[in-house]
Design goal:
Elements lengths: L9 H11 L28 H18 L3 E6 L1 H12 L3 E7 L14 H5 L4 H7 L3 H8 L5 H27 L5 H14 L4 E4 L7
């Protein structure tokens, strides 16, 4: 995982610019990430629960030192942990979520599930289905057609489940994954937590 200075040192530049404006900033490697010791976390598990705990602890410490509101910025899996931490920790007063890939993560999910399932937006494939380059890649077996078909089918199913979630929640007497995400966002809305959600045009998230 990218260390605390960020992709192309973006975190360093951002922290220095914020500091120049009088805004205290903490850059950190969570357990098992970047330059942290191998004994502080499980390397290669960017969605581990311990990382969320680290973000919460960092937010509390930053608030203790500055006596001001804490806004957490996370990229990819960091955005996931920022979101999870904000749901549990009132010390977090705002979120900047960049390239968020997952709203829900289940312990035991395969480490490469994000790579296999978070493909580009469906509109990207529909727009390129008649392109020569797409068919050339298909003939060369340059991408996993079966996985693409499976992921697109799951997206259709997921949309259907999202629409039927209120009914499914009553029938099965429990929260579906869609329901959990909705409740998460509703909880943050009730707390008045502002969220900036940034995503590239063709980004898988």
């Amino acid at each position: 995982a990218t260390p605390r200075w960020g992709n192309a040192r973006v975190a360093v530049e951002m922290a220095r610019n914020l500091a120049a404006d009088g805004i205290a900033t903490l850059r950190m490697d969570a357990s098992g990430m970047g330059d942290t010791g191998l004994d502080t976390g499980t390397v290669g598990r960017p969605y581990a629960e311990q990382v969320t705990a680290d973000v919460m602890q960092a937010a509390v410490e930053l608030q203790r030192r500055t006596r001001g509101p804490v806004i957490v910025l996370g990229i990819c899996s960091g955005a996931y942990h920022a979101l999870q931490a904000a749901c549990r920790d009132p010390a977090i007063a705002g979120l900047v979520l960049v390239n968020l890939q997952r709203f829900v993560w289940r312990e035991g999910d395969a480490p490469d599930i994000v790579r296999r399932t978070d493909l580009r937006p469906t509109r990207f494939y529909l727009r390129n289905i008649f392109g020569l380059q797409a068919w050339y890649r298909l003939l060369r077996a340059d991408f996993d057609v079966a996985n693409l078909a499976r992921v697109l089918a799951m997206r259709v199913l997921r949309r259907a489940v999202a629409g039927a979630d209120p009914v499914l929640g009553v029938v099965f007497r429990g929260a579906t994954r869609v329901g959990r995400v909705r409740r998460t966002m509703q909880s943050l809305q009730q707390h008045g937590t502002p969220i900036l959600y940034a995503l590239g045009y063709n980004d898988p998230g």
